[in-house]
Amino acid sequence: MNELVTITDRAKERIDKIMQEENYDNSYFVRVAVESGGCSGLSYKLSFDNEEKKGDQFCEDRGIKICLDIKSYLYLAGTELDYSDGLTGKGFEFHNPNASRTCACGESFSV
Q1: pLDDT profile of the chain (111 residues), mean per 10
Q2: Tell me, what's the pLDDT at 88?
Q3: Helix (H) or strand (E) run with residue 82 in it
Q4: What is the pLDDT of residue 98?
Q5: Where is the Core domain (predicted)?
């Protein structure tokens, strides 16, 4: 598996905690996607899934299986997924080298 998307230790800890709280077994993976919308044109979407779809691309980092659909793969290759629970915001953060512009909230971008 290629490392299309990597995750930080904090993101891994949070993903492991969510999977445990939701009673997700090993058949589940993290689906990372890009959707139209947001202040900058494209927004990130993160969910848990256990059904593979045609064209899905898989990678694994730190023992976490990550899935990207073919459209999202083009935008997200090389992205690092992080998690912050600090005062400036709580949640998953995407550090995307392909983004030419991001909005102030960090939830949308353009290329």
Answers
A1: 81 96 96 80 90 94 94 89 82 85 54 55
A2: 67
A3: strand 79-86
A4: 81
A5: 5-106
Q: In the structure encoding, which two tokens stand for residue 9, read together? A: 């230790």
Burial class (CB in 10 A: 0-12, 13-18, 19+), 93: middle
**CA–CA distance, 18 with 2 (Å, rounded to integer):** 24
Q: Are 67 and 32 in contact (CB under 8 A)?
A: yes
- Tell me how far apart the terminal alpha carbons of the chain are, to the nearest angstrom: 25
Second-level CATH architecture of 5-104: Sandwich (2.60)
pLDDT attached to residue 86: 75
